[in-house]
């Protein structure tokens, strides 16, 4: 396939399934426990129906917008994803490049393969950094300082990983700390020569933000025991206060699923919050993100920006999220699939596909400017109201 033969996110998923080693493809395409929340993130979008309008002049359309005051080519940012450099060699650098060319923000995960410094050295525009709160607070302070030194323009603080949701496939594939790949996984690796060759061509094959930076973590085996015990279950709003102070820049809180927590997020002084269930990878049985959005948007009002992620697979889904009160959105798996399928060209194409779907759908709904989108473009915009 060439990028132009790819017409939707599902095409990328299928291609990634063929090209990416099983254990890393499964890592991306999985949710926790029954994967019920993972699936409902997507399927709940399909419950929302557009109101088609005709004979409205829709010749000049624009979907440019802004997120926390930053101009964006469309109201979509790339979500932070761990191990991205395993979907494709140097994946984080390629993703950041595709995002900056398109004109949308890229978020680098704490658990990325390429380090903050790697990505900064290979890009021109500021990217965002996602922080997990670890028990080792010295390490966190240094990470925050490194993100500042790299000129990152926002800190995305993820709050929904105090404990780790159990993902069956990762356990069965031995994608654990330390990694214990099964024989089948190793055999599968041999069937992906393109991936293997590209991995041989890069030095970036371990957690670049951590190895050589965290105390006592110099190699893969010390890294394993470190990560296993570092996610901090004692995280509280007090920690958010000191992180905000230490960082001093734009702060975005990720993983809010409850209106009361949304109010606490507003009071914490954050610039935006992200309605997110971590792509269905943490609390299985939690509602879909799109169904949780209206209630939270209502609770927050105009005080800070409300964004959402989880289940967005098209520009139509982006438009539905905007209609239900999101000022911006994030995409995780569409990014990973397109990266695993075709590297940087894949991500660029994926962003084009999503923007095109967004543009055309907005037109069908009789609108020319994304700023005028509200729930009146939906026939049943109230189905998730509580
Ligand atoms: C994630 N997500 C995530 N979030 C975060 O804050 N830090 C991280 O390191 C990761 N890692 C990660 C890995 C993989 C493989 C996936 C799929 C997701 C969650 C991510 O930021 C986002 O919330 C979801 O991916 C959004 O859902 P969709 O777009 O994947 O459906």
UniProtKB/TrEMBL annotation:
UniProt cofactor(s): FMN
Biological process (GO), any one: aerobic respiration
GO cellular component, one term: plasma membrane
Residues of the active site: 278 (proton acceptor)
Residues that bind FMN: 80-82, 109, 130, 158, 254, 276, 309-313, 332-333
UniProt cross-references to Pfam families, sorted A to Z: FMN_dh
Amino acids binding glyoxylate: 27, 132, 167, 278, 281
Keyword terms of this UniProt record: Flavoprotein, FMN, Oxidoreductase
Gene Ontology molecular-function annotations: FMN binding; L-lactate dehydrogenase (NAD+) activity
InterPro entries hit by this protein: Aldolase_TIM, Alpha-hydoxy_acid_DH_FMN, FMN-dep_DH, FMN_HAD, FMN_hydac_DH_AS
Residues annotated as domain FMN hydroxy acid dehydrogenase: 1-383
UniProt family annotation: Belongs to the FMN-dependent alpha-hydroxy acid dehydrogenase family.
PANTHER family: 2-HYDROXYACID OXIDASE 1, S -2-HYDROXY-ACID OXIDASE-RELATED
Official protein name in the record: L-lactate dehydrogenase (Cytochrome)
